[in-house]
Design brief:
The chain is built from 20 helices and 7 strands. By secondary structure, the protein is an alpha/beta fold.
């Protein structure tokens, strides 16, 4: 099978090496093949006739798709898009990692990235479920992480959103981000169609989500007529109605790659935080924020590299802060697993403190 990718997007890379100074995986492991330039050279070789094989996977499957290379590329290349396209071609050629296949199987079989069998709304009581509005213009898309790993985040988020008439999908499944990031485009289309049918069933025109991965997927891969809002954006729009109290805390904020660099949502979370307490910025923020290491399938495929990136990110935390706040449950998990001394919390936990 020929390896087919838009050649123009690949050949925008001129091998200048600017990305060597910013790629978090290269910083952690030091292999040229695990740097953006090395990945682009490997993809060029595949385009030029190199047979697709498992030899290329340690390079192409270890990219977190954080996007800092694209943000800094003087030639205007977009390596994360190219890497995702290359992964999709490798999938068509039957060249995948075991971790990729396990992830796909979990999403397709169980509707979530963890292979969980329990109901996605298990964090709601039967009474609460029975009272969910069947129709609403606004839906809270919970995501796999908050549904199964941080149900307390989901409960706090929905507790706030219910005040504004927001409901849940009858049968939400994974947003398809893990499938898209790891190359399973055809499978992703099926999952997205299911969710779109659910959205139409509810009659929603606006989707609110608290997961950065869900946000970028719903916003950029689902139909454009849907309005997609991240939880920080929604909270920032409704600060007056929330009537938050001031807390005697100092926190720092970690910009998730898929919320910040990919979608430029920088101000809203800071506005929410500053309405509650003192914000002390990290080193490397906004467009320069360093990846937590969790994205692009790297956490599941290369856990040691993933945690090394998280530990590197924790080095950017300033002194004398009470919490590290972020707006992505995957970032919460990876930064917590890195074992720092400062507690990592989701922004909804901070808001809940200011409401209670």
């Amino acid at each position: 099978m020929p390896f087919e990718i838009d050649r123009r997007s690949v050949y925008k890379c001129v091998q200048c090496g600017t990305c060597r100074s910013v790629c978090p995986v290269f910083d952690a492991v030091g292999w040229e093949s695990a740097n953006t330039r090395g990945r682009m050279l490997i993809i060029k070789s595949l385009l030029e006739g190199r047979p697709p094989s498992e030899d290329v996977l340690p390079s192409l499957a270890s990219c977190t798709t954080c996007g800092i290379c694209a943000a800094k590329c003087p030639a205007g290349a977009n390596p994360p898009e190219v890497v995702e396209a290359a992964r999709a071609q490798l999938v068509k050629c039957g060249v995948t990692t075991e971790a990729q296949e396990n992830l796909k199987s979990a999403v397709i079989t169980y509707g979530n990235s963890f292979g969980e069998t329990k109901d996605r709304k298990h964090w709601l009581s039967e009474t609460e479920r029975s009272k969910l509005p069947e129709k609403s213009g606004y839906v809270y898309f919970v995501g796999c992480f908050d549904s199964y790993r941080y149900p307390e985040f989901a409960k706090k988020t929905f507790g706030i959103l219910q005040r504004f008439g927001v409901t849940l999908l009858p049968d939400e499944q994974c947003c398809a981000s893990p499938l898209l990031r790891t190359g399973f485009k055809e499978d992703a289309e099926k999952v997205m169609k299911h969710n779109l049918d659910q959205i139409k069933k509810v009659g929603a025109h606006t989707i609110i989500t608290s997961c950065a991965g869900c946000y970028t997927t719903l916003k950029n891969n689902y139909p454009e007529e849907l309005r997609v809002i991240s939880l920080p954006e929604f909270l920032a729009e409704h600060l007056e109605e929330l009537n938050l109290k001031k807390l005697d805390l100092t926190v720092t904020y970690h910009d998730p790659c898929h919320l910040g660099r990919h979608n430029k949502v920088y101000d809203a979370p800071r506005k929410v935080i500053q309405a509650i307490c003192t914000l002390k910025e990290m080193k490397n923020i906004k467009e320069d924020s360093r990846c937590c290491g969790g994205g692009g399938g790297v956490r599941i495929g290369y856990p040691d590299i993933s945690l090394e990136l998280a530990r590197n990110r924790l080095q950017d935390v300033p002194e004398s802060v009470d919490y590290i706040v972020t707006s992505c449950p995957l970032c919460v998990r990876n930064l917590r697993d890195a074992g720092g001394d400062i507690e990592v919390i989701d922004i909804v936990e901070l808001v809940a403190m200011a409401i209670e």
